[in-house]
């Protein structure tokens, strides 16, 4: 499906519509030892929520953490227990087990990778503690292991990036390199797929791909390697702004002009990325909204109250070219 990207005189290019796929779960919170509909450790007024965060790897993650910590406050009815897994799945599993031991009312987390969660999620279910996924998905066959998944459509993000690239560069024989996110992470798998689907049939060719683990440092290192290996790179598709910013450093150190000699497309639209876009060093950014705190708070309260919740909540994203970034920058929250 191709989109006609308007010259962005207006603030943003085609907004990506949010579709809240309503597949209301009719389940109550899993039965805990406490009896009908109660979750272990529930109390009358404050919801104790254990959150396992991926890490602090990027500007997006910092904004996401801030949104969660700013929203799940005591005055908002929460006792938030927060842990940073430093991008290690074993640390997340350990944190979730600790929350089960503490008999929190709800567990929420952003799974660093898609696979390997069934065992610990079964333990939470057996303990009667409902689980909410934010940001990234798990690939479990059993969707009763979590109440709801709140996050962006990463395939659409990759598609939007690829469609813009085709719109702008098809017919010029562009050679592209891809800075991939963390291997096995839902945004890495889906953005890669979406971008590849969108450029199929064009003459844009991905000549190499490598993970930069969503970090600026590793993005720079991988780009340095690509620049030593190839002298004809026209385009970089980076799965997040931070790796794109690292690529800019490598491109400039190699005496080339980012955004001109080598075009750059990224995902996230955090402030540093939007500034580079406005400065002409990046050419297009697809947003991935990190402000998931309010949705998490709302869903957690509904789950504890035994109300129906949407199984999948797709967060609305936008997309920006250089002109749109200049317009949007003053009002950006992250
Ligand atoms: C996407 C999120 C990704 C961001 C990166 O929802 O999981 O992880 O795109 C972050 O910046 O590291």
User: SSE order, as H and E?
Assistant: EHEHEHEEHEHEHEHEHEHEEH
Contiguous helical run count: 10
CATH architecture heading of the largest domain:
3-Layer(aba) Sandwich
Average pLDDT, rounded to a whole number, is 90
Query: Radius of gyration, Cα only, in angstroms?
Result: 21 Å
Could you say which structural class the secondary elements and strand pairing correspond to? alpha/beta
Total number of strands: 12
CATH topology of the largest domain: Rossmann fold
Number of domains: 2
Protein name: ABC transporter substrate-binding protein
Subcellular location: Cell envelope
Signal peptide: 1-23
Keywords: Signal
What does it look like?
Helix 8 (271-278) links the parallel strand 9 (263-268) and strand 10. The strands form 2 sheets. This protein has a 6-stranded parallel beta sheet, sandwiched between helices. Strands 7-6-8-9-10-12 form a 6-stranded mixed beta sheet, sandwiched between helices. The chain is elongated. The relative contact order is 0.18. Helix content is 36%, strand content 18%. The protein has 10 helices and 12 strands. With 334 residues, it is an alpha/beta fold. The protein has helices at residues 59-71, 89-101, 118-126, 154-169, 186-199, 216-229, 241-253, 271-278, 293-304, 322-328; strands spanning 47-53, 78-84, 106-109, 131-134, 148-151, 175-180, 205-211, 235-238, 263-268, 284-287, 312-314, 319-321. The protein binds beta-D-galactofuranose (GZL). Residues 57-58, 60-61, 135-136, 151-152, 187, 214, 240, 242, 267-268, 288 line the site of beta-D-galactofuranose (GZL). InterPro entries: Peripla_BP_I, SBP_2_dom. Keywords: Signal.
């Amino acid at each position: 499906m191709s989109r006609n990207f308007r010259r962005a005189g207006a603030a943003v290019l085609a907004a990506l519509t949010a579709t809240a796929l309503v597949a209301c779960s009719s389940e109550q919170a899993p039965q805990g030892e406490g009896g009908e509909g109660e979750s272990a450790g529930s109390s009358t007024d404050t919801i104790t929520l254990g959150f396992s965060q991926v890490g602090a790897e990027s500007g997006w993650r910092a904004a996401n953490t801030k949104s969660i910590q700013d929203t799940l406050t005591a005055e908002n009815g929460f006792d938030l227990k927060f842990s940073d897994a430093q991008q290690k799945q074993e640390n997340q599993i350990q944190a979730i087990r600790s929350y089960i031991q503490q008999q929190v009312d709800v567990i929420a987390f952003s799974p660093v990778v898609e696979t390997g969660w069934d065992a610990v999620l079964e333990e939470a279910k057996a303990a009667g503690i409902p689980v909410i996924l934010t940001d990234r998905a798990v690939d479990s066959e059993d969707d009763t292991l979590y109440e709801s998944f709140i996050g962006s459509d990463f395939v659409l993000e990759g598609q939007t990036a690829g469609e813009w690239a085709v719109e702008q560069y098809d017919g010029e024989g562009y050679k592209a390199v891809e800075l991939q996110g963390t291997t096995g992470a839902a945004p890495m798998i889906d953005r890669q797929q979406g971008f590849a689907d969108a450029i199929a049939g064009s003459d844009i060719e991905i000549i190499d791909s490598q993970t930069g683990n969503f970090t600026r440092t590793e993005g720079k290192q991988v780009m340095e390697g690509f620049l030593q290996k190839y002298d004809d790179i026209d385009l970089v598709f980076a799965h997040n702004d931070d790796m794109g910013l690292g690529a800019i450093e490598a491109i400039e150190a190699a005496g080339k002009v980012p955004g001109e000699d080598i075009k750059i497309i990224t995902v996230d639209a955090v402030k540093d990325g939007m500034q580079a876009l406005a400065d002409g060093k990046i050419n297009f950014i697809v947003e991935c909204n990190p402000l998931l705190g309010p949705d998490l708070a709302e869903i957690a309260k509904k789950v504890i109250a035994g109300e129906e919740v949407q199984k999948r909540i797709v967060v609305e994203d936008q997309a920006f070219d250089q002109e749109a970034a200049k317009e949007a920058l003053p009002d950006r929250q992250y």
